[in-house]
Amino acid sequence: EGLLVRLRGAMMRLDRQADVAALDQVIARIEPKTLDGLILKGMALQNLHRNAEADRIFAPLLAHLDQLYDDATRRDVLLAAARNAANLGEQARAVERYARLQSLSALTDEVRDEYAGVLAQAGQTTQAIKVLEQGPASPRTLKLLASIHSSRKEFDQAIAVLRRLLQASPDDISAHRLLADNASWAHQYDLAA
User: Does residue 2 register a pLDDT over 80?
Assistant: First the structure.
């Protein structure tokens, strides 16, 4: 199992997705004998979109999270379990798992954006905005923030965020479209044109 963990990790780092998928098929059939093997199987099942099976592995791991080896392992399990819950459409459980992850350590920009997206899908848009505003303003973050403001019919705020984005990325076609849409909805037709 240790060899499989290292091999899968190497394939992921090399971005060899076809090899990872083939390896995940093998991992999904094993009966793990170690904690690492159990975690690996959960992640493999998730990668194969067998989320209900993966959740049956993650649930007991989460119940004993404090007994896992170290913070890095706890983060890996929480992140995988949060993503899995989101993939199952169980937004409340995904939000709880991302919140636990955030309390364990600072979120990466990518994970912060994921968390905010799940919060927005769960109807917690105010919290989603707060989460996004905690980190750097990447183009992805700004588009998500603008979309959340737009969904709340806060078109002026969405326009302000999109203007910030376009200052940094003036050639971003999708940002121009979002700006035009929001300007139109805000009845700022001169800006929409």
Answer: no
